[in-house]
Design goal:
By secondary structure, the chain is an alpha/beta fold. It is built from seven helices and six strands. A six-stranded mixed beta sheet has the order 1-3-2-4-6-5, with helices on both faces. The chain binds uracil.
Length: 159
């Protein structure tokens, strides 16, 4: 089981991923494997540190064989995810990938449809970008992801 980690109150951003992987499951820390290393470079490119942020996942238990969580698993974990976000009150939420975006926006839309605009999650601005594990498989998409993160930096007035 892997809970969220980082700034427990008023973080600048809450990054929401999909589910813990093997490394995360073994250590109890979110995003510490290969995808986490890429997330760390995205965070430092944004001139931020993990300590400024809250990092969590849609589901807290590792799905077998790293499969995508099933819809009933997402529904079962949503109150916990929403509870974390309500408790930490981030200035902004970044959904990493379609699973997080769908869980937070409560909609089965494509990532193409959800990226490129601001959404509202219970009064908190929310932006959707690609999951770092997807960016590792398709590095050409990093440029678009950086565009998403620059929108977040502008919203948070990070220059
Ligand atoms: N590690 C996590 O904690 N979440 C993901 O979505 C992927 C890797």
């Amino acid at each position: 089981v892997v809970f969220g980690s980082g700034k427990p109150s008023k973080p600048r951003i809450a990054f929401v991923g999909e589910a813990p992987g093997k490394n995360e499951d073994e250590t109890g820390e979110p995003f510490i494997g290969k995808a986490g290393i890429l997330l760390d470079s995205m965070i430092s490119a944004m001139k931020l540190k993990r300590d400024d942020l809250y990092i969590c996942n849609v589901v807290n238990c590792r799905p077998p064989e790293n499969r995508t969580p099933y819809p009933d698993e997402v529904v079962a974990c949503s109150p916990f995810l929403f509870g974390q976000l309500r408790a930490v009150e981030p200035e902004c939420i970044v959904a990493l990938g379609a699973s997080a975006a769908r869980a937070l926006l409560r909609a089965k839309r494509s990532i193409k449809d959800m990226r490129g605009k601001w959404h509202d999650w219970e009064g908190i601005p929310l932006r959707v970008t690609f999951h770092p594990a997807f960016l590792l498989r398709d590095p050409q998409k990093k440029r678009e992801a950086w565009g998403d993160l620059q929108e977040v930096m502008a919203k948070l007035r990070i220059s």
